[in-house]
């Protein structure tokens, strides 16, 4: 069974933290947060990211974090039992930034399924996973 590994602009014990090159500049300083997490599917990751209290916080992220000219997150499929590392996450982010979405590194606007085919996130499943933003 495949799971999705996702890295957003906080922490998984995946070894030493590595910052993707797009976020490594001194102008960013402490206005950058990283998250590396593992999800059962794209819909549960999407629901957490964009619904509920996390989604509400994302809508005002410009008040806390600097805007970067790079993808805000990257996702990819991993095998059961695999623990992604920060280095792996930074490399996948760099792939997405350089070449755009692919089966190896994608975002929620252009997701790929575990078999490497483009797909559409099931919005009904997203609603089942998370409360609406107005219920938080």
| Number of helical segments with 4 or more residues | 4
Strand content: 5-15%
Task: Give me the count of strands.
Answer: 3
Strand order of the largest sheet: 2-1-3
User: Overall 3D geometry?
Assistant: globular
- Give the overall pLDDT as a whole number: 79
**Sequence of secondary-structure elements:** EEHHEHH
Description:
The chain has helices at 42-50, 52-58, 86-99, 123-129, and strands at 2-8, 35-39, 73-79. The chain has 4 helices and 3 strands. A 3-stranded antiparallel sheet has the order 2-1-3, sandwiched between helices. It starts with a strand and ends in a 7-residue tail after the last helix. The chain is globular. With 136 residues, the chain is of the alpha+beta class.
Give keywords.
136 residues; alpha+beta; 3 strands
List the helices and strands and how they pair.
Elements: E1 2-8, E2 35-39, H1 42-50, H2 52-58, E3 73-79, H3 86-99, H4 123-129
Antiparallel strand pairs: 1-2, 1-3
Task: Describe the structure in brief.
The chain has 136 residues and is α+β, with helices and mostly antiparallel strands. It has four helices and three strands, in the order E-E-H-H-E-H-H. About 4% of the residues have low confidence.
């Amino acid at each position: 069974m495949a799971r999705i590994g996702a890295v957003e602009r906080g922490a998984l014990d995946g070894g030493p933290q590595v910052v993707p090159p797009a976020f490594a500049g001194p102008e960013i300083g402490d206005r950058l947060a990283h998250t590396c997490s593992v999800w059962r599917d794209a819909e549960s990751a999407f629901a957490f990211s964009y619904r509920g209290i996390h989604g509400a916080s994302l809508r005002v992220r410009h008040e806390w974090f600097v805007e970067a000219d790079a993808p805000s997150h990257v996702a990819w499929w991993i095998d059961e039992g695999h623990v992604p590392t920060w280095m792996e996450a930074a490399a996948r982010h760099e792939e997405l930034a350089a070449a755009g979405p692919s089966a190896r590194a994608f975002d929620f606007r252009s997701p790929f399924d575990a078999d490497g085919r483009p797909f559409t996130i099931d919005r009904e499943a997203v609603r089942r996973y998370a409360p609406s933003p107005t219920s938080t």
